[in-house]
């Protein structure tokens, strides 16, 4: 491991240690921006906010810090270079917006930390910034991050080409972690793992998958196939589940524990289901299980080292998780 990689890994380990062995990730970013009035009926989804209202993004980051997050995930989930170019922005403007997504989170973290750091009693930790890298399906804006159905012509090379420049720009903005989110398939996992190697990325990554049945990746493939690809990579420090119903999480942590030695992160959504065509959240198939405090305790006991929330979870959700697993803030 090189010096840069070692320092980044130490920072992650220290953050987990200060959090008492299990750290708190923030909650849904896009859906919390919507709570504040943002509207994302747009192929760029929440990335429009980077163009229209970046201050609102910083405000939501601050809300999650105040709620007890040890990790902030940036607003770059659906921020892509081709997405911005098709909006008429230049390459330079597109790259600047990606950098801005990391800057907004770093600024919020630094501002919050300098305000609370003076009082050790308040129980806050200095948060890490994880640069979100949404799947190719997020860019397609058709809900295919929950199916992995990307069309017949897609292969590892095309997926690497799609992810490459954004990854370079985000990594260049110096986040503490790279957060690949809502990854649906073994193919995209392979592309990410190869890309991290080819680009010689020194920032630790997480790769998180959704699941629509609680047993398999969203593509229907076995998690064993996906995790076998990840286990060979020293660039990926954390694997896990995001934007899947809370009901599936405990079983998936137990499954992952058998398949990998990597740290496990879980940040499920509220249990509601995204209708990619209508672009609305549908009611949960099972009852909406919203007691994230007691769920978080169970997930921690099953082996999760990072716990938070995804779409339709809120600062209130993160406060409940933080209180349950850290007894603070
Ligand atoms: C995590 S989903 C709710 C994000 C939005 C989706 N990629 C779309 O554009 O429809
Ligand atoms: N980090 C993204 C994930 C969407 S699935 C968000 O919270 O908006
Ligand atoms: Zn989500």
TrEMBL record:
Pfam families: S-methyl_trans (PF02574)
UniProt-listed InterPro entries: BHMT-like, HCY_dom, HCY_dom_sf, Hcy_S-methyltransferase
Gene3D superfamilies, sorted: Homocysteine-binding-like domain
One biological process term in Gene Ontology: S-methylmethionine cycle
Binding residues annotated for Zn(2+), in chain numbering: 243, 310-311
Transmembrane segments: none
Ranges for domain Hcy-binding: 11-325
Keywords: Metal-binding, Methyltransferase, Transferase, Zinc
CC cofactor: Zn(2+)
Protein name stated in the entry: Homocysteine S-methyltransferase 1
Species per Swiss-Prot/TrEMBL record: Spinacia oleracea
């Amino acid at each position: 491991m090189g010096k840069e990689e070692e320092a980044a890994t130490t920072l992650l380990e220290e953050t987990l240690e200060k959090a008492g062995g299990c750290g708190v990730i923030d909650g849904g970013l896009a859906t919390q921006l919507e709570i504040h009035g943002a509207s994302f009926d747009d192929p760029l989804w929440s990335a429009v906010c980077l163009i229209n209202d970046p201050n609102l993004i910083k405000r939501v980051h601050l809300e999650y810090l105040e709620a007890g997050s040890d990790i902030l995930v940036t607003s770059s989930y659906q921020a892509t270079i081709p997405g911005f170019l098709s909006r008429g922005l230049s390459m330079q403007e597109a790259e600047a917006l990606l950098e801005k997504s990391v800057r907004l989170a770093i600024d919020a973290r630094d501002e919050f930390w300098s305000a609370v750091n003076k009082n050790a009693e308040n129980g806050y930790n200095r948060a890490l910034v994880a640069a979100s890298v949404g799947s190719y399906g997020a860019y397609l804006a058709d809900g295919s991050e929950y199916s992995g159905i990307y069309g017949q012509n897609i292969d590892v090379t095309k997926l690497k080409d799609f992810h490459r420049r954004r990854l370079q720009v985000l990594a260049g903005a110096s986040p503490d972690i790279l957060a690949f989110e809502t990854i649906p398939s073994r193919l995209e996992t392979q592309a990410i793992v190869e890309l991290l190697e080819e680009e010689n990325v020194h920032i630790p990554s997480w790769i998180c998958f959704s699941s629509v049945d609680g047993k398999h990746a969203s593509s229907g493939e076995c998690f064993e196939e996906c995790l076998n690809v990840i286990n060979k990579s020293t660039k990926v420090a954390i694997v896990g589940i995001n934007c899947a119903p809370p009901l599936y999480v405990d079983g998936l942590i137990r499954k992952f524990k058998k398949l990998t030695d990597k740290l496990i992160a879980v940040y499920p959504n509220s249990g509601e289901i995204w209708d990619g065509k209508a672009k609305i959240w549908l009611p949960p198939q099972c009852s909406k299980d919203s007691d994230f405090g007691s769920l978080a305790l169970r997930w921690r006991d099953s082996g999760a080292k990072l716990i938070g929330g995804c779409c339709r979870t809120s600062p209130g959700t993160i406060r409940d998780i933080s209180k349950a697993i850290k007894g603070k803030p």
